[in-house]
Amino acid sequence: MLQKREKVLLLRTFQGRTLRIVREHYLRPCVPCHSPLCPQPAACSHDGKLLSSDVTHYVIPDWKVVQDYLEILEFPELKGIIFMQTACQAVQHQRGRRQYNKLRNLLKDARHDCILFANEFQQCCYLPRERGESMEKWQTRSIYNAAVWYYHHCQDRMPIVMVTEDEEAIQQYGSETEGVFVITFKNYLDNFWPDLKAAHELCDSILQSRRERENESQESHGKEYPEHLPLEVLEAGIKSGRYIQGILNVNKHRAQIEAFVRLQGASSKDSDLVSDILIHGMKARNRSIHGDVVVVELLPKNEWKGRTVALCENDCDDKASGESPSEPMPTGRVVGILQKNWRDYVVTFPSKEEVQSQGKNAQKILVTPWDYRIPKIRISTQQAETLQDFRVVVRIDSWESTSVYPNGHFMCEMPVNTPESPWKVSPEEEQKRKDLRKSHLVFSIDPKGCEDVDDTLSVRTLNNGNLELGVHIADVTHFVAPNSYIDIEARTRATTYYLADRRYDMLPSVLSADLCSLLGGVDRYAVSIMWELDKASYEIKKVWYGRTIIRSAYKLFYEAAQELLDGNLSVVDDIPEFKDLDEKSRQAKLEELVWAIGKLTDIARHVRAKRDGCGALELEGVEVCVQLDDKKNIHDLIPKQPLEVHETVAECMILANHWVAKKIWESFPHQALLRQHPPPHQEFFSELRECAKAKGFFIDTRSNKTLADSLDNANDPHDPIVNRLLRSMATQAMSNALYFSTGSCAEEEFHHYGLALDKYTHFTSPIRRYSDIVVHRLLMAAISKDKKMEIKGNLFSNKDLEELCRHINNRNQAAQHSQKQSTELFQCMYFKDKDPATEERCISDGVIYSIRTNGVLLFIPRFGIKGAAYLKNKDGLVISCGPDSCSEWKPGSLQRFQNKITSTTTDGESVTFHLFDHVTVRISIQASRCHSDTIRLEIISNKPYKIPNTELIHQSSPLLKSELVKEVTKSVEEAQLAQEVKVNIIQEEYQEYRQTKGRSLYTLLEEIRDLALLDVSNNYGI
Amino acid sequence: MAGLELLSDQGYRVDGRRAGELRKIQARMGVFAQADGSAYIEQGNTKALAVVYGPHEIRGSRARALPDRALVNCQYSSATFSTGERKRRPHGDRKSCEMGLQLRQTFEAAILTQLHPRSQIDIYVQVLQADGGTYAACVNAATLAVLDAGIPMRDFVCACSAGFVDGTALADLSHVEEAAGGPQLALALLPASGQIALLEMDARLHEDHLERVLEAAAQAARDVHTLLDRVVRQHRAELRGGHRLVLGAGFPAADPAHLHVGERHGLHHGGGAVCGRRPCPGFCPGLRRPPQEVGGSASGLA
């Protein structure tokens, strides 16, 4: 007779509601016990296998034991196992079908002495689950109850051992019933099967792995991080002041522990927080990554922590530092991320051993980003082994709250050059390229400290007596495949940004500063152009373009090269390549080098002269070099000293660019990227002409030739500054040079006004400019076209190229703009600290170059500053100069003439300033709350300022003739992006500056970007 | 419920029954005084209430009247609270209409309609809790109600469902087993003659297995008949003995066939005699078959 019971189950539907389900449960008096000891075999109606009768005991595993130790229970040596239905169901529900099927097969297998007892359908064994009783407890209770029943059913003739992992159950039931023993599984194996080695080993390993799992889950409870709050909650929280919004900045040196949230805008005003908010530990950081805009909740004050002061390694994890931190600062935790700043990251694969220690699940690999501040990223890849020695670019896809690390995927690989796995010239490339390593003396001349050397030079005498000039450019396109991720990124950046003290690279540094950079003493791929020149006339006889392998012998800097050129060999000590050589070979090598530099200069002069004949212009741009001392404080501002070698190198580059332009235009007349410089509008020259007239010069601006000639003539022997100023004005009047696609312009428009060349392009700086990369590809395609080879990859069509040119032009303008602003910023900062009243340096010599109604525009050669000085101040007072020529403000009036301005006081004193007059000015800083600070000039005397180093300026004046030809930089339209970026930087700098007087200005900028000192004049390549 | 083991290796179903075993059946007749006949049945957790009116004159349009036999009008409904998720089930939805038609078909085959030409018999069935086999429960409840109303029938109509899992036919499917989506067969049987009043089959089943499933369903229906027979006999006995039990005491769980007979039943019976409008039942279960010991049957459920 069946008995009906009801079981109430609470199930969760797919919609997430709970559903109360009532299920019937029928109990019967007789359930087959499968025991030979059964007193009523008829009632139990056994069919199927029985337990063997020669066992000493029956063993009943608890549900947990069945789940965890099924492998051991599968040992045929273990006999008399009774699986309770409760345990089997637990396996089915919690371990899934596979494990359950294993159990079923075990039960079916006649060789295994085990049976299933359907205890839940036996009316005496079934125990309903009590209210509030946990599933596990109920299962254990049911199994024990069934074990007891079974024992009595067999008329107490067979002892029963129930094995369980539940200590409580052992205590509770251990001695409850005689004949039914409750022990742990380990204990059971030890006592009953001491000889079964395999089982013991297996048991140990299972225990071990289970313990590990438990540890893991104890630490994390499944979820590694709290969930982020929904956006509405965050917004409401920010408004109400409960949460604070800011940008997360991870401490580079303690990336695991410390991150700071820099407050953004309005939020800081309400919550009178002055400092940043510390985010301590990865957990509080809650999956945000460096640069994210996050929402932070402040912790109560007693949980605030201090910034760690102790030095520590980056690798150490949370627990490592126990040192007392500095005084507590506001500490918070991230509750949400408003804007994710995930980008692509360069990562390194773990070494083989590490991969193995990460476990069998080798499809998932934790890779370490190059940037300390980015957490390790988990990626899935099949090619872990092959990618072992590569750096790869990965992108973060997601970061679940259940995961310690973000998930990412592999995007592309990057070449690696480390001491462990040095980059080598590959043999295939060696075959394809012309090897110049042995035959040519190749060297580079760059500014001091330059890392991205993209051009080298060589010159030698051929067997027939002719000269061979070579220009070797870094083969960037070899490393940057078209449309690869690097390529796309470089395309968007378009150019490397040079600021006064740093640069923002276009290419990743492994390429720009290492593999592509033509450093001294290492093998590098290059694209070369070699001309055969007539030995006497330097006429170009032949030209060769192609890919090469070079090894640059010397990495010279301009000053050293100039010294060598001037015959001053003492500079040799500054050239590292000569250091380890013995005297003799040193002498020989030095001679060779000096000859080469001399020859180069000779050639350059010739080429230059030819170009001058066509009307090439020499233009003037004010360039300032910012010198920083060790503490990164501004040490001095120094205007560029132009050297002849500058011109030599520039001339070679112009030559190379010109020839490449001719080549690619011939090969691809409709889709070559060239650079044009349209002639300027005549009306822009009017100011220049007026100024020149003041000094009695006439400037003919009808063509570039006449302009160049008249500028050369407009030289005041007493004042070299006049010529510089005139040239600079001419520069101002010029329009900008632009890239364009040959398909969209008429051929006569290709002309380059400034350089007086019919075709020109940019080829020589592929590391710094994307246009050069495009030109490199065009050149390579042109070469393969000549060889009747198939052109690899698609070239840009005219339309696409035009689009690209527009983009690059925009970016270039932005770059120039930011460069200019950065220079201005540094000029400001230089004077910021100095007290204009006392500091010697704030008083300088100035030249008037323009007259306005209420003042004059001044140029200060010492610092390269241009600015306005008022002759009438805000109170209406005018300047007057007493007999000691010191100025003072007095009531009076100003009168402006064509090229002079006269200030007359009411007393009748008057002072007149002429164009190009030298005056003494005091430089000070006008602070502005809303804008960046500006430099203010004040005329303190109408006599030239006498300082010892004026002589220095005069000394350099003879070199003016050979001044570096400068790309035309008219003040540009404000390029939106650069503008914004720039403004931000300025504001931040000033904030930092005001807050921490005496501390370095650069700490902040350093966090943004590694400081890279680089000379700005580097882009001579026009 | 995917992956639920409907039939274990040991031959147990989810709720502990074996393949051929029925769920527990409890029933009583004459639960409402105002109706001519009524019955309540529980098959496991499926609970149904049936009420019968008639035979009476055609209500509404007289055109519907049949000249040679009575019109059997069946209406099915299920309570909003009958399933786990509360759901509004308006009258006249597809499912109810279909069930009504099936019931009508079933009872037109069983009731001796030709005895009552131009009259109408109303059978109303409501399912209070649905846990699988609603059709079967409705038929069984209606049979008892019709018997209670004293309307002559050829035989009991006993219905039961059967399914097919892992090569085994399962009798009397519960909701869990139905929801698993296997083939399902509903059978209404006139047990004495073995005639089939209605046979319905959902899902696909290989022809080879049909025989076995049909046999399982038929056997289950015969078992149901045994039980219903006992219910009727006990009901009759109680009426004769004038037993009066108080309603609302609940079912004694140990005895499924135990009957609770409302006090109105005596009146009802007497009323039946008094009103005399009802023809004498042409069929008396007690006379046709000797009482059977249900509990001893191997497959029966007592």
UniProtKB/TrEMBL annotation, chain B:
Instruction: Please give the PANTHER family that the UniProt record associates with this protein.
Output: EXOSOME COMPLEX COMPONENT, EXOSOME COMPLEX COMPONENT RRP41
User: Which GO-annotated molecular functions does the record name?
Assistant: RNA binding
Q: Name one GO cellular component term.
A: exosome (RNase complex)
Spell out the CDD domains in the cross-references: RNase_PH_RRP41
Signal peptide interval = none
Could you mention a single GO BP entry for this protein? RNA catabolic process
| Domain Exoribonuclease phosphorolytic residue range list | 21-152, 155-219
Keywords attached to this entry: Acetylation, Cytoplasm, Exosome, Nucleus, RNA-binding, rRNA processing
InterPro entries attached here?
ExoRNase_PH_dom1 (IPR001247), ExoRNase_PH_dom2 (IPR015847), ExoRNase_PH_dom2_sf (IPR036345), PNPase/RNase_PH_dom_sf (IPR027408), Ribosomal_Su5_D2-typ_SF (IPR020568), RNase_PH (IPR050080)
Query: Which Pfam family is one of this chain's hits?
Result: RNase_PH
Protein's name in the database: Exosome complex component RRP41
Indicate where this protein resides in the cell: Cytoplasm; Nucleus, Nucleolus; Nucleus, Nucleoplasm
The UniProt entry's sequence similarity note says: Belongs to the RNase PH family.
Spell out the subunit comment.
Answer: Component of the RNA exosome core complex (Exo-9), composed of EXOSC1, EXOSC2, EXOSC3, EXOSC4, EXOSC5, EXOSC6, EXOSC7, EXOSC8 and EXOSC9; within the complex interacts with EXOSC2, EXOSC7 and EXOSC9. The catalytically inactive RNA exosome core complex (Exo-9) associates with the catalytic subunit EXOSC10/RRP6. Exo-9 may associate with DIS3 to form the nucleolar exosome complex, or DIS3L to form the cytoplasmic exosome complex.
